[in-house]
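Subject: Sanity check before I submit

Could someone independently write out the structure tokens for this chain? I want to compare against mine line by line before I put it in a report. The sequence has 314 residues.
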Amino acid sequence: MKLVFLEPLGVPGDRLMQMAKDKLGDRVEIVAYDNRVEDPKTLIERSCDADIVVLSNFPYRKEVISACPKLKMICVAFTGVDHVDVDYCRERGITVCNCAGYSTVAVADLVFGMVIALGRRIIACDRVVRQGGTKNGLVGWELEGHTFGVVGTGAIGLRVARIAAAFGCRVLAYSRTKKQVEGVEYVDLDTLLRESDIVSLHVPQTAATVGMIGERELSLMKPSAILINTARGPIVDSKALAKALTDGKIAGAGIDVFEVEPPVATDHPLFSAPNVVATPHVAFATAESMVKRAVIVMDNIDCYLNGKPQNVIC
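---
Independent answer below. Compare away.
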């Protein structure tokens, strides 16, 4: 059985290979590519005789999968799988697994990095002090006593909620599934948007969540509120958000995800809007999370080879 790592997974190649050998032994022949290539032709060349492939977040569609007759398993080294043609895999009987959980800590950390950067005006303060300025006009606010709204209470959303509570925030949540969590009050989405000082998004990208936060939803938020999106770009209408920021309808935004994977066009509307902290889809990526991810990948493949697949999407 042939296992192909279609790209590096954020850990040194020799360590990745050793992890694979330690977990999988001689049950698979391993090929690992040390660069990330996304064009379908190259992906077909790399995948065509593989039984199992591992990839993170680049598109892996029917055009490629249909050219891989031996393919039995796709291990997605990522939480979301919207970039993989899951419906076609289901038709073919190809097992698709993800690596949910590896980035929970990393994403939650960045959420609060963004919140504090916006609340304490860190970027503006850095710019001003380098120019010989003072704190005039740059006095920020504390998290304690504010209302923190969490949209989506999966593992990441719940961690964010608990950290917000530890900061002394009132925590509101909106989710399809309500959970009994101390210090978290579930409300409808409109109520959350109206009452929250910080709104943090943690829902997957689905047909139901694309455009979830648009002009109407932004109009419900407080003029002093900030929006954080470390989930998926299409969940938020970027043009509507840029306009809301420019018009002073809300006070700021922290954005890690866009409609496309970085590099993002330099004329993106959010880049000219005020009070935006933007990062290039980096929330999931820490030295620790990359190792956690690789461990889950090996466990997923080991379980599949043992006939008991885990983290199964289809």
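---
OP: Matches mine. For the report I'm noting this point. The chain has a mean pLDDT of 97.
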